[in-house]
């Protein structure tokens, strides 16, 4: 299939608009109409990964971390980033990254951590705002159901675990068709009054083009009147970190042993134990220290993440146990997650999981 078929699907699962401003998710190297025959999935994109892709006949590498994070001005092979890009281009291998946008979805990186730990009822810890918009439009009464159904089919009207949500109010619209118009109702040159329904629906901002196309295709009028508003509401299904519950309370030491085992962590750096049972747990794949206050506010007993700095451990203040399992250790199952997501949609496409451990950190035990 073509590369754009796969990337379009991945971006419908984890839209690029969900990534952080500093991120560089998306197609880094390659062109959308390129034919792809096999893909290699990895956490990082290194020279070893590109060599593995060549050996396994993969002309696409899908990594969690973007190989190009900052602007590159020269390509002369002086850094591993430049060497990776050069080798990929020379061997006609496309590079695609799906990073913080995959972190931020309901069934993304943090959900996978919860699954591995057997945690229940996971929900977003810090919901993102600025991702929602509202559409208001005006439809003749007898056509309202058709328009509502079309908008819902395009993805509008989803609020939490509910779909087809809309607000409707009846009123009268007026207009005068000019000489070149072809009015659905009314006559040219005459003021016409039509009984209409105002329909309002919420949608994710990245869906706007599809929503407007569905509106225009289903609406009977030659000229469709509508308004779009940016909402300040948080998107409860999109955001950083997760909060979840243990099926049965555990003491802190036993729970940390469970985490060490399930996440294959060689070591866990943690704050002093509080002596309280563990019932609620916050998680954040990668570097999650920015979520500590959110984890405490959510009532988490333990916060599992990576990359905490020395002084940041003091901020626990005996209110929570910080468990730093390591950046790689917290995200290692992202490869498995991507494999499952793609395999479900494209069961006959050749997918390979890397055989390399790309963790740059080694432990002397």
From TrEMBL:
Species: Paradesertivirga mongoliensis
Keywords in alphabetical order: Metal-binding
Family under the similarity heading: Belongs to the GTP cyclohydrolase I type 2/NIF3 family.
Domain of life the protein comes from: Bacteria
Name the UniProt record assigns to this protein: GTP cyclohydrolase 1 type 2 homolog
